[in-house]
Amino acid sequence: MTRGSPLGERVYVRLRAALLDGTRPVTERLTESKLARELGVSRTPVREALTRLVSDGLVRREDYGYSVVLPSLATLRDLHEVAVAVELRGIERCLENPALRHDAAALRRELARWYALREAPAPAPAEFVCHDERFHTTLLAASGNTELVAALTAVHGRTRHARIHFGPLAEHPETAIGEHIAIAERLLGGELEAARELLHRHLEAAVPPRLR
Question: Rounded to two decimals, what is the model's pTM?
């Protein structure tokens, strides 16, 4: 699909970011006129942007306008399975090949962020899910396989709305924070088997209740 006008491109980028970071409610009814007023533009660039978002699979056309697309429960279960396999593989490859080492500097920087989060007020659900995604991608990236990271990033993009609105992270952030710290500390200490077990338990506990 062509990008259309420069203004349509800017509207597209802005709306796409809002959809992916969870700042727009999944139940919101999206219409050209409402979005045009909100963004201070005409309906034409909004229409261009929405057409591209339909093509991206992020919104769908409805009688009243557009709605946010959420994966089916079956798809969410499949995506969770992919995420678990990919994340555990990051540690397993280091267990299988002693020559591979996690990036200790990256782990220390991430661990420092979570020490700080432990002392700070709990962030909003959308913000906390973004923190959580960064932790898991950083952990995986530290194992040295960029393709595994790309696969996990793709899963995060497709499941973010469900995790923000239906997941357990927002209810018990202190639990997730403690688990993240424990996993990173084990990795830094070279306790790979223990880190893998903690990560596996953590990922299974983070499954939204409706997926269990």
Answer: 0.76
